[in-house]
UniProtKB/TrEMBL annotation:
Domain Histidine kinase as annotated: residue spans: 20-225
Domain of life: Bacteria
Protein name as it appears in the record: histidine kinase
Length: 229
């Protein structure tokens, strides 16, 4: 019976996710369908405007599908010893221009002798891209983001601290649920992907936040192979 229950639980999670995906994709599709009709009668000026909206709706569908593909099975993944220091620097370089445009400074503080993490490099990179992106997007005025890496017993801890809008306490508990977003162009899938990646690495993710002051995300990942992966 235990197995049965697990299976039905899985099915209901799948059902919820499928319902969410269907809903999120149907909205832009409905709008695209409407604009396709309008387009034929529109004159040149308004047509440009319609095309701009249609492009942004298509981008939205594209974003949702790309993020879902990251959690979709099966992907050939290989666990290997990964240098987190290099990985963090490459993620910072990737998102630096986004930060500079908003006058945000990113500080990186890495302890000496950080051991490699046993993990899937691409997934870990995606994890930090999603988290750093959220940190940057949470800040609408200039400020600082601090990234710290510390060595613990058999694990390392990566902290990402921003000075952004913060997360209300009742939302902290439900982070990782699909399609929760407070952003106009958000998908609400980034954190779901992060939780999934962390789980696959036998790690933990912890959020603490003060509204109006900022958010701290702490990721702990083992530096020795996890049993069973
Ligand atoms: P998205 O970024 O597309 O909205 P995410 O799953 O990455 O989706 O994040 C979900 C929501 O969690 C965000 O819309 C935001 O409200 C909140 N959030 C996540 N990270 C932060 C952060 N560092 N600061 C403030 N809010 C955050
Ligand atoms: Mg995000």
């Amino acid at each position: 019976t235990e197995e049965l229950m697990l299976k039905s639980e899985k099915l209901s999670v799948l059902g919820e996710l499928a319902a969410g995906v269907a809903h999120e994709i149907r909205n832009p599709l409905t709008s695209l369908k409407g604009f396709t009709k309008l387009l034929s009668d529109a004159d040149d000026g308004i047509r440009q405007e319609y095309l701009r909206i249609m492009e942004s709706e298509l981008n939205r569908i594209n974003d949702i599908v790309s993020e879902l593909m990251l959690v979709a099975k099966p992907q050939a993944v290989s666990f290997e010893y990964t240098n987190i220091k290099d990985l963090i620097y490459s993620v910072v370089r990737l998102l630096e221009t986004q930060a500079i445009i908003k006058n945000i400074q990113i500080w990186v503080n890495i302890q000496d002798k950080i051991p490699p993490v046993y993990g899937v490099e691409n997934q870990l990179k995606q994890l930090f891209i999603n988290l750093l992106k959220n940190a940057i997007e949470s800040m609408d005025a200039e400020g600082e983001i601090h990234i710290k890496i510390e060595n613990r017993n058999h694990s390392i801890v990566i902290m990402i601290m921003d000075q952004g809008c913060g997360i209300p306490p009742e939302r902290l508990k439900t982070l990782g649920e699909p399609f929760y977003t407070t952003k106009e162009k958000g998908t609400g899938l980034g954190l779901m992907v992060c939780f999934k990646i962390i789980e696959e690495h036998g790690g933990e993710i912890r959020f603490s936040s003060v509204e109006g002051q900022g958010t701290k995300v702490e990721i702990e990942v083992p530096t020795i192979p996890v049993q069973g992966v």
